[in-house]
Amino acid sequence: MPDRPDRCRPPQPFPQPQFRRHLDSAASQYYVVLIIRFTYNMHRHIDPDSFGFLVGDLSRMVRAEVDRRIAEAGIGLTAGEARTLAHAGRAGTVRQNVLAERMGLEAMTVSAYLDRLEARGLVSRLPDPSDRRAKLVALTTEADEVLAVTSRISAEVRKQAAAGLNRAEWEKLLHMMKLVRSNLSAGREIAASEKGAVA
Predict the structure, then answer these.
(1) What is the pLDDT averaged over residues 103-131?
(2) Banded model confidence at residue 19, pLDDT cuts 50, 70, 90
(3) 44 falls in which pLDDT band (50, 70, 90)?
(4) Is it true that the peptide bond before 127 is cis, omega within 30 degrees of 0?
(5) Phi and psi of 88, rounded to 5°?
(6) Domains defined for the chain, CATH in brackets
């Protein structure tokens, strides 16, 4: 009997067993990948408004705004020099290496800033009576005029940052920030004492 036309052939089962196994395997791999990605995304979720990010954002934004205003003020100092002068005024007469540590900068970077400030007559470096190898940094009277400008700029930025807060709320915020700073400082001291005890 001649073969029947294709349209008359009985329908073939679909999919074939081998192809079905391939589909099952591919689907399984796909779902495994989805599960892994979902689990990974859950574990790597990061809160963009966590304490560390907020402090970092505030520090970066305040610094950028102060730097911009200092550049516009025309006081003849770079932002780094102005910060060094302000930190020296905050610390009083202080060792150069201690000033660098408080600023969170390399000693050589602060030394370069101090060289230029000293050339402007804004700071002086004196021998440390307790260690002839060390230098003490002190402000001169000529620094007062420059610090008056930087203080005004700081007050303007502070006013901008405090928009929407009343005086009591701002004072409470400062109090809580000081408490956090104290907690972290105490933690560093404990860690240092424990390290010394082990050594």
Answers:
(1) 93
(2) very low
(3) low
(4) no
(5) -65, -40
(6) 51-161 (1.10.10.10)
